[in-house]
Amino acid sequence: MTGLLQIRNRQRARAVNLPLLRQITRHLLTEHFHAAECELCIHLIAAREMACLNGTFLQHAGSTDVITFDHSPHALRPTPHSLHGEIFISLNDAIAQARQFRTTWQSELTRYVIHGLLHLAGHDDLESAARKKMKRAENRMLRAMEEKFKVAGLSLKTARSQSSQKIRCSKLSTEHCFTDY
């Protein structure tokens, strides 16, 4: 696989093992999505920034768990094996959802990466049947990641969040933020 992958951490809710998250994402891209090429940026953000994104781009109030922006040249028809976009993940929402569903925030974070990649691969969750199909694929890939990787290792208990920075809603954009893969 050729391409670019960047993971940016702009939240302080949890310290995240970014090398492990990158390893999981690379594995998903090559083994599950069979991506020949990719340009992908994953942003780990706080609920406040997510609420700004949700309001600005989707006209929804409040935070949400994950928002995906498809930047592929054929955004209306994704090219097979080519993923280009950004995935914004709220760690605060991952923590809350983990409590609600009696799982870990690390599993929820992995689920949100998978969910975003599924959207970039052309899956839709607006209709009930499509949502069920997407959820089955999400669950299958999450189980595979939990078998292959120690997902609990996404937690860095002693370190502070890496690369945290404050961003005002007016400065939010979905411009590319890619670096060498």
If you had to describe this structure to a student in words, what would you say it looks like?
It is a single chain. With 181 residues, the protein is of the alpha/beta class. It has one domain: Collagenase (Catalytic Domain) (3-Layer(aba) Sandwich), CATH 3.40.390. Helix content is 41%, strand content 18%. Helix 1 (18-32) packs across helix 4. The longest helix has 21 residues, at 128-148.
CA-based shape: globular
Percentage of β-strand residues: 15-25%
The DSSP helix count reads 5
CATH architecture assignment: 3-Layer(aba) Sandwich
| C-alpha Rg (nearest Å) | 15 Å
Number of strands: 4
Low-pLDDT stretches = 158-181
Mean pLDDT reading: 86
Q: What is the domain tally?
A: 1
Helicity, in percent? 40-55%
Name of the level-1 CATH class: Alpha Beta
CATH superfamily: Metalloproteases ("zincins"), catalytic domain
How do the strands line up in the largest sheet? 1-2-4-3
Largest sheet: 4 strands, mixed
Element order: H for helix, E for strand: EHEHEEHHH
Structural class: alpha/beta
CATH topology: Collagenase (Catalytic Domain)
Distance between the first and last residues' Cα: 10 Å
